[in-house]
Amino acid sequence: MPISLHDVFHAIANIRSEQELKQTLMDKIGEYFGVQRWGIHLIDSQSHNDPDTKSIPAVCLESNPIGQYVVERHAPTHEQLILTPEDWKDLCPRHDHGHVMTGPIVCDGRLIGTLNFARDKGNPPFNANDLADLSAICIHISTKLATLRTAPKTFPSLSSSPLTPREIQIAELVAQGLTNIEIAQRLWITQNSVKQALKRMFRKLGVSARAEMVAKLQDLLIHK
């Protein structure tokens, strides 16, 4: 059964971390638009998509007119709104970027990220309905990210958790969307120490991913 726009809205409403947004929600949105490549880039955190996900590079905000459009207007666009097919072919000759569409993620009046989609050559271009749907999705994601970033990311009362105080501290930073490198820098430990700690934490909690770990800890808080 095809995914509906309201299915996407419901999925956005139910994400519980930025990691879940990147790793789970984008797959659903990519499926909705019927694209071959998709991705999310959060500008202010300088975080990038995991290399093993189907994603397209972040929009080049300085030299790409599509990126410039999004930066200046905080509005979604696709290549045919700005360029002729010939100009787009000259700008981006890649076969897997036959058609592209980009939308803004905005918080407190600032552009903090972009949603990026691409279709291979030979596939239909994006149209006005795609653009309207992306605009609605961008509004929902912008609102959800603002909520996630202002919500407390602490698990101080998890006395029933098998995690040590240090591991809970790491979990809180994971919930804030920090990478292993950023966590290591924040805690003055090595990146490998963070990696090994996460392995232990996953094993203790019976999970296999960062988003799953955060979700389980949040559930423990709710049901404690």
Gyration radius, rounded:
19 Å
> What structural class do the secondary elements suggest?
alpha+beta
Separation, N- and C-terminal Cα atoms: 37 Å
CATH topology grouping of the largest domain: Beta-Lactamase
Number of strands: 4
Compact description:
With 224 residues, the chain is α+β, with helices and mostly antiparallel strands.
Tags for this model:
Beta-Lactamase; 10 helices; Arc Repressor Mutant, subunit A; 224 residues
Structure description:
This protein has 224 residues and is of the alpha+beta class. The chain has ten helices and four strands. It has helices at 5-14, 18-33, 65-73, 79-82, 85-91, 128-150, 165-175, 180-187, 191-205, 210-223, and strands at 37-42, 77-78, 99-107, 110-119. The chain has a four-stranded antiparallel beta sheet, with helices on both faces. Strand 3 and strand 4 (110-119) form a beta hairpin. The protein is elongated. The relative contact order is 0.14. Residues 45-62 have low confidence and may be disordered.
